Amino acid sequence: MTATLAIIGAGPKAVAVAAKAAALRGMGVPTPEVVAVERTSVAANWLPGGGWTDGNHRLGTGPEKDIGFPYRSSAAPRRNADLDARMMRYSWQSHLVSTGQFAEWVDRGRPAPPHRKWAQYLRWVADQVGMTVLSGEVTEIGVDGDRWALATESEHGGASVSADALMVTGPGQSERSILPGNPRVLSIAQFWHRAAAHERICAERVVVIGGGETAAAILNELFGHRVSTITVISPQVTLFTRGEGYFENALFSDPTGWSGLTPAERRDAIARTDRGVFSARVQDSLLADDRIRHLRGRVAHAVARDEQIRVTLHSDRAGEPLETVHGFDLVIDGSGADALWFTQLFSQDALDMIELSLGGPMTGDRLQESIGYDLAVAQLAPKLFLPNLSGLNQGPGFPNLSCLGLLSDRVLGADLGQRPPSVNRRRSHGRQPIR
Fold it and tell me: Under which pathway is this protein filed (predicted)?
């Protein structure tokens, strides 16, 4: 009998955990059964159909920071060197060697791959380790005794998945926007679908809402379209560049000293290096394009009027609240991922259980402050792993791609209990192959 770890989403974090579990199992080390629940396909968010990219933009993190990085395993005491060697079989370089691309990649200067090639790598790893993927969308997260109970739906029917632990990944839905249904307002998904179809955007005044990497990728694409001015709206006083030197990068790869920082120091480090900042590559493009300008504030609401979208902006000046209205021909809502997207899925029983462990209503701040060393909500059983919310307590590398090997160690090193796995079908619905 083994424990079951269910993962919502089959992206890099899920693939990393599945690969580490397979490596441990190959060494004879007890490890939970890993089941990913995915509504489309493995690595879907890195492909045009996922709504977050057209597949052609380049990975912001070096591909060497792959599913085993930094290859400093701790999940197999006295055998971690063997575990690292096994994980190297699933490295980015091993993928290139296996597919005959390694020499070309080296000769080209080891460039960051486009998103579609990163997706190919993740799918290659999933194939290599025999990753179990249940096709379906999670519609409710409940509890059944001391286990999680996930209700799923897909075109094949519905299923319920019972698990001793649950890990939530993914940025949520990319279809949301401030004015749904208006053709002059594009969600992230709508923008990338147009880009993937090679539809040229022609507009006088375009605004992009958001100051993070999602908005930066949109800007990078917009440079090649026929637009006269591009305004970026973000809460920051300016468009900051992400710190990309050795000392900043080391915070993401090695969180050893993170717990010794005060909460204020941690927040400051995240603000300078990760949240609401653009990469140096995008900033270089901004400097060379005189169509770009920046407005500081938060978008309160938007209305359609006189063949324009009127955006109301809230900001402050000298401590006094300030409200301004600006008109644009096209609005692209690139405000980015919703880290709390999954909270709407909890049943009332599950919500009561979580709030009891948090000591109050479930909020983003309470969840972030509750994340323990294993990347799970402290004092909560069964385990709920929330790596996307673990940056404040455990280090900025865990929410993104910077230390997937450490992430899998911490998750698989947690005490999940020993239970028989269970997937109960309500109608005809089997586990689907990952392709």
Answer: Siderophore biosynthesis; mycobactin biosynthesis
Each residue of 175-212: pLDDT tens digit?
Answer: 889 999 999 999 999 999 999 999 999 999 999 998 77
pLDDT in the model for residue 134: 95
Same-domain check for residues 194 and 162: no
Please state, in angstroms and rounded to a whole number, the distance separating the CA atoms of residues 83 and 72: 9
How many other β-carbons are positioned within 10 Å of the β-carbon of residue 308? 17
Number of domains in the chain: 2
Asked if residues 205 and 191 have their Cβ atoms less than 8 Å apart, the reply is no
Residue whose C-alpha is closest to residue 308's, from 327, 286, 281: 327
Q: Are 10 and 114 in the same domain?
A: yes
Give the strand pairing for 308-317 and 298-305.
antiparallel
* Amino acid letter for position 153: E
**What CATH number corresponds to the domain at position 309?**
3.50.50.60
Choose from 187-196, 240-249, 409-418 the range with maximum mean pLDDT: 187-196
| Degrees, nearest 5: CA angle 166-62-116 | 70
For CA atoms 210, 57, 124, 61, give the dihedral sign: negative
281: domain range? 185-240+276-333
Q: Which residue has the tokens 């455990």?
A: 394
What's the pTM value of the predicted model, to 2 decimals?
0.90
Q: Are 399 and 169 in contact (CB under 8 A)?
A: no
31 inside domain:
yes
Can you say whether the dihedral through the CA atoms of 88, 90, 93, 95 is positive or negative? positive
Q: If 0-12 CB within 10 Å is exposed, 13-18 middle and 19+ buried, where does residue 344 land?
A: exposed
Task: Identify whether the C-beta of residue 27 lies closer than 8 Å to the C-beta of residue 53.
Answer: no
**CA nearest to 130, candidates 30, 33, 4:** 33
Instruction: Provide the pLDDT confidence category of residue 277 given band limits of 50, 70 and 90.
Output: low
